[in-house]
Amino acid sequence: MSTIKRRIILALVVALTMSVSGCGTNNAAKSVTVNSGTVKSTKTVDGFGVVKAVDIKNITVDFPAAVKTIDVVEGQKVKNQDSLVTLNLTEFEDQIKSKEMSISSESHDIEEIQNDYLNTSNAPDLQKLLNDLKNAQDLYNQVQSEYAAQQTLFKSGGISKYDLDQSKKTVDAKRNDVEDIKSSIDTLKYEKQQTVDSKKSDLAILESDLAAMKDKLNKSYIKGSDIISNVNHGIVYDIGYVPGDIVSSDKKVLSLLNLDSLIVEANIPEEFIKSVKMSADVDIIPQADKSKTIKGKVIRISDKAVVNNGETDVPVDISFNNSDGFLLPGFNVDVKINQ
Fold this sequence. Notes:
Layout: H1 3-21, E1 30-34, E2 37-41, E3 44-53, E4 56-59, E5 66-70, E6 77-79, E7 83-88, H2 90-119, H3 124-155, H4 161-217, E8 222-223, E9 226-228, E10 233-237, E11 254-258, E12 262-269, E13 281-286, E14 294-301, E15 306-308, E16 311-320, E17 332-338
Antiparallel strand pairs: 1-2, 3-12, 3-17, 4-11, 5-7, 6-10, 7-9, 8-9, 10-11, 12-16, 13-14, 13-17, 14-16, 15-16
Protein name: Multidrug resistance efflux pump
GO molecular function, one term: efflux transmembrane transporter activity
GO cellular component, one term: efflux pump complex
C-alpha cells in the first residue's frame, strides 16, 4: 500500500474516532451508552508493519572444507541439531594430524636432549668429553706430583733451574688442557640448553596453532563434519553453495532466522508518534488472514525518524506471542496501537 493511501486511511480513522468521541474530548477511552448496555471505545494509532527476525545467524566456515551435501532447501523450517550441510573435512583433518605430528616430534627432541645432555650424560659426544676430562685430570695430577718432586730436587741441587721451569710448563699445559675440556663441556651443554629453549618456543607456537585449529571446529553449529542448526526454531535462507564447492571464509554458507526472535517493525507517521507509548498494547492483524488478531506490546520507539517515499515515519518495534507459529518473517501486518 502506498504511503499517500496509508496517510489518507489514517486520517479517516482519526476523523472517525473523533466524531465518535465528540469535540473537546481527550485521548482517554470513552464509554458510549447503547440501550441498557455500555460499549467501551478505545482510541488507537493505526499503522502498517513487517514481521522481522531480530536474531539472524550467518553461518561461516574459516577452515579448508568442501561441500559434500546440502541437507536443506531455501525457506525450510529447522529445529535445534538438524543437519543443514555436510562438509568434506579431509584436508583440514590432515592439517591437524600434521600439526600433531610436529608437536610430537618437537616434544620427543626436547625430552631426548634433556635426558642425554642436561639431566644425564648419555650422549656419545658428551661421554667422550667427560672421558677426555678424566684423562686430562689424571695427567694433570701426575705432572703436579712430578713437579713437586722436581722442586725438591732443585732445592738440593739435583736439577737445574731450566729443568724445573720445563716441568712447570708441563704442569701449566696440562692444567690448560683440563680447563679447555671443561669449557668444551660447558659450551656443549649451553648449546643444548639453547636448542631446548628454542624448541620449547617452537612447541608453544605449534600447540597454540593446533588449539586455534581445533577451536575452529568447536562451534555451536558444527558437529563432526556437519553444519547443524543451533536455534530451536529457525528458517534457512540465503544458501550460498552447492555440493562440490570449496568453502571460503569470505562467503557465508547460509543464514538462519531465529523464529523465537520475531518482532513487528511498524512505521508510524511522525504526526501520530506522540500518541505511541512504551509497553502499549497492540493488536496485530496479518494481511495473510485478517480474521486473526495477535496481541503484542510496544518494546521500542526509535529515536530517529526515517523518510519513506517522501514521508517521515518513526520505526516502532512490537513484540508478540507467536505460539501458533502463524506469523513468518516478511509477513505484512496491520497494527492498532492502543493510546
